[in-house]
Model the fold of this input.
Amino acid sequence: MANIKQIEQEIKKLKAEIEQHNKLYYHDNDPEITDFEYDTLVIRFKELLEQYPQFVEEGEILAKVGTDLLQDGETIPHKERMYSLANAYSLEEVVSFFRKIFITYPADSFDVVAEQKIDGFSINLFYDKGKLQYATTRGDGFKGDIITSNAKTIADIPHRILYQKSLEVRGEVYLSLPEFMRINQEREEENKKLFANPRNAAAGTIKLKDKAEVKKRKLASFIYSLGSHSADLDLNQAELLEFFKQQGFSVNPHYKRVSSEAEVMEYCNYWDKERSNLEYEIDGIVLKLNKQELQQQLGFTVKSPKWAIAYKFKAEERETTLKDVQFQVGRTGAVTPRAILEPVYLAGTTVSHATLHNADELERLDIHFNDTVRVIKSGEIIPKILSVNKDKRLPNAQKVVFPTHCPVCDSELERVPEEVIAYCINISCPAKIQKSIEHFASRDTMEIEGLGEAVVSLLIDKGLVATIADIYRLDYEQIINWEGFGAKSVENLKIAIEKSKTQNLDKLIFALGIRFVGSKIASVLAEHFQSIDKLQQADSVELEAIPEIGEKIAGSVYDFFHEPKNIDLLDELRELGLNFSYANPQSESALLENKSFLVTGTLENYSRKEMQELIKANGGKLLSGVSKNLDYLIIGANPGSKLDKAQQLKSVAILTENEFLGMIK
Done:
């Protein structure tokens, strides 16, 4: 019999992984795994929830479509929801999908429209009286970020159309491969981070605030579906694409109406082979029932239409030789191996390096220098080594071993039990300095305006900055003579640096870059301890006793404040005049002072975030889970297991949305 505790841990781990990959794909435009690998996680997650329904609340994320919404972006609700497509990874799955439909509806002949699946960025356009009123991103499927100004710079998106009634149209914004290569070449010359692929570049470009830069990058679009529209547009899918062309929209020219399973497979196989000859990237084929009447009869699942499916191409694979392995150190100190490969042409680009992820991956592959390796790459991810051809291994080949000490500063690496990443915890490690200083100076931490990536890099190159403390020892007279700097910009930088010394303690704690400590945990620590001194004196037991702080976070915080080099840094920052104490922010009211709250379920009038802001504005404290420290649980529809736990505790007061609002009136 399965160990329930182990099952619960696996469910929580899968949930965290799915949420993280949703964020990487939709928000950060920086996916780490293929769609197939993602779907494998989701399938396992669903299976466990079906077998163990007591954990069904953990499955809330399955009802959510991934979101690319900006945290503080201005949004507009879609007039009709934007759904995602179900994925198929084999032609057998595609055939099975359509057989089920035509067995249920035998009177309908096989009539399907096949279209290339553009690897780009979804867009929603709304027209009224023939004029483009606004453009939004896909967002979370229900609302999207406003990108009207940027969308108008895309040459093939018409500002006016012939059709005069209200109309929502949907499509994909993409970047051609020649333009993608031009942009990356420019970025390389300017020593900027390169875009991983055209999709990331398109997704990043459409949300830029600099409209001139958006126009310069020459985005393009293909329109393929309707949202909200008038009843007179009673068109089948093939007719709809022709309608879009008549209105001046760009429609992918390679769509085809097919009338048999054989034609579906022929179309998919043809473009799987020919995709590398296109000037834009596709990652599959979208297949839709042509007849609108049948589409309406079938309807939708929670996330996807029942009348369409996306056939995803398999990622291309090639063999090449592993020349070397470099171990890189990131801002958090995470050490990751990077394979240097004999260049090989793969999925439309020349690949010369691949990720090896971590020490466990090195062991799994049993990789040796000069091994023949099989490399995989799809349009969504950076290349990675899939396997090693051990039959081709050279005699006496040396095994690649993960280092025990930082490859840059030689500090001993630490690896938390049950984790896969090894860390350098020396905050003064040169490899961490650039990213650490950027993080320290960012808007969410010490807010040092003017200390961005380029300036930090220059200060490091010129030898003026080697640690965070050096920010506060800058020789401004020397900087003023550098090209690109003037008296005014240097003075502004000086003012911003001096102002940062007064930031509240929670900002400083977050700025220090302690592993697992984000802005929320930093606030919890600052509010609890009130000073750096008390935080430094706390042991792991005291840290773990704080609501919101688990064993993993407590261990990381304790280790950080007991690392000699970090202690030295804090002493320097103290001497340089930084604020080491916490000032409690003034709430709009103190009606909820000393009371703790948790929100669960779907509220009627407020989003969960809005309700949390109301709680904080009135002096209340937010918790992330049900415990004896919780005073009030605010519930909406489908509150799940949190309600059960609260009822079992009996010490927690359970409130409806309106009952809570009554407390603050």
Summary: The domain at 316-392 is CATH 2.40.50.140 (OB fold (Dihydrolipoamide Acetyltransferase, E2P)).
